[in-house]
Specification:
The longest helix is centred in the N-terminal third of the chain and has 20 residues. The radius of gyration is 19 Å and the shape is elongated. Helix 1 packs across helix 4 and helix 4 runs antiparallel to helix 6. The chain contains 10 helices and no strands. By secondary structure, it is mostly helical. It folds into 2 domains: 48 residues, Arc Repressor Mutant, subunit A; 127 residues, Tetracycline Repressor, domain 2, CATH 1.10.357.
């Protein structure tokens, strides 16, 4: 991709992210193009459907979360890095409720693919492996199971729950991953 095209694409994603955060993902695409100071044709060249734009925004923001495990592990013991990473993901997910219906529709129709779960699972796996090596997290836990627990917490507390409930449930997830002490 040419540098100017990459800048236009990145700028469209940033403008769309701000628009979706301020309202939801039903913001007219014409408004996003106008705010980004590009033509609607430029927007559609990069994102042929609304779902493609929503997925691009979601994926770009998820990058910030999914690339943070290594840094957290450098700063903290694995069990603390895990808890901090789970908090980051929960905060990220809490801001995406306006997009989730469009994402689910795109995933269900096959128009967009959900590579995000694999990215989440990979980061969780990185932290679990570090914890297993250090002896501070269980080595017998499947990273897919931890992803399922995390998504269960996030989805079950998405609406109407207090932040305190999310924190308590994430504490339980981490507690389940600590080495067992028999006796």
């Amino acid at each position: 991709m040419r540098a100017d095209a990459r800048r236009n694409r990145d700028h469209l994603v940033a403008v769309a992210a701000a628009a979706f955060a301020a309202a939801d993902d039903s913001v007219p695409l014409e408004n996003i193009a106008r705010e980004a100071k590009v033509g609607i044709g430029t927007l559609y060249r990069h994102f042929p459907t609304r779902e493609a734009l929503v997925e691009a925004v979601y994926a770009a923001e998820l990058d910030e979360v999914t690339t943070s495990a290594a840094g957290l592990l450098r700063e903290s013991p694995p069990e603390e890095a895990l808890r901090a990473w789970l908090d980051r993901y929960a905060r990220f997910a809490a801001t995406k409720h306006g997009m989730i219906d469009t994402l689910r529709a795109g995933w269900a129709s096959g128009r967009i693919t959900p590579p995000t779960r694999e990215r989440i699972t990979a980061e969780i796996g990185t932290i679990l492996a570090a914890g297993a090596r250090a002896g501070s997290l269980r080595a017998d836990v499947d990273r897919e199971d931890v992803t399922a627990m995390l998504l269960g917490v996030v989805l079950s507390t998405a609406t109407g729950s207090s932040a305190g409930q999310t924190e308590r449930l994430l504490d339980l997830v981490v507690d389940a991953l600590l080495p067992r002490t028999d006796g």
